[in-house]
Amino acid sequence: MRNESPVAIRDRASRRVRRLTALAVGGATALTAAFSGIAAGSTHTKTHAKTAPAPTPTATTKKTVTAPVPSLTPNGSSATPQSQTQTQQPTQVTPSPQAPVAVSGGS
C-alpha cells in the first residue's frame, strides 16, 4: 500500500469522476445527435417530379369569345317591377306591450 494522504486520494477520485462525467455527457450528446438525424431523415417522403418534354412550337390562334345576351322571359309572377324613381316609405316601429327580456351575459 501506498503511503498517500487522504487529500491526494480525494483529489484523484474527484478528477476521475469529472473525466467520466465529461465522457458521459459527450457520449449522450453524440447519441442524441445521431438519433435526431435518423428521425429527421425518416420523416420526409422522397418524391421526384417527372418533367414533361418541352412542347413543340405550333402556330397559335386567338379566339374571341362573346357571351350571349340574356333574354328576359316572364316567370308567371303578377308582380310589376318598381321604377327607379319610386322611394319606399319607412315602416314605423311600435313599442311592444310585453316587458323586455332580461339577458344575463355569456353563453
| Main sheet attributes: strand count, strand direction, barrel closure | none
Oligomer: single chain
Strand content: under 5%
Strands, count: 0
The secondary-structure class comes to mainly alpha
Work out the helix count.
1
Unreliable stretches covering 5 or more consecutive residues: none
Proportion in helices:
25-40%
Mean pLDDT: 79
Shape descriptor reads elongated
The ordered H/E elements are H
Radius of gyration, whole Å: 44 Å
Q: How far apart are the termini?
A: 83 Å
Features:
about 110 residues; mainly alpha; about 35% helix
Q: How is this structure best described in words?
A:
The protein has about 110 residues and is an all-alpha fold. It has 1 helix and no strands. The chain has one helix spanning about 5-40. The longest helix has about 35 residues, at about 5-40. The radius of gyration is 44 Å and the shape is elongated. The model has no long low-confidence stretch (mean pLDDT about 80).
